[in-house]
Amino acid sequence: MLIQPTLRRAQSPRSGRTPDFAHRVTFPRVGQCFDIEITRETDGWLIRIPEIDATARASRRAAVDSMARECIATRTGIPMGYIIVFVAKETR
Length: 92
Prior knowledge:
With 92 residues, the chain is an alpha+beta fold. Strands 3-2-1-4 form a four-stranded mixed sheet, with helices on one face. The chain starts with 31 loop residues before the first strand and ends with a strand. It contains one helix and four strands. The chain has a domain of 56 residues. It is elongated.
């Protein structure tokens, strides 16, 4: 008696059966994130970085991010491309 192979359908992801292999998931990689606090002053912005106990100044609000990253890079040695800043507190 001849046995014929049967065709199997691919199982849907909702089937409840877990696949025999894991899918590779890649997440964006970041260096280090620092919380900063900024305060509006008459001549610009004061930037305080509590994690490394440092302060910096920026003349414009648009320059706060880059000035904070530059200060952190100088103090810690982390390359600027790996530094992310998050404004945790803004006082006007």
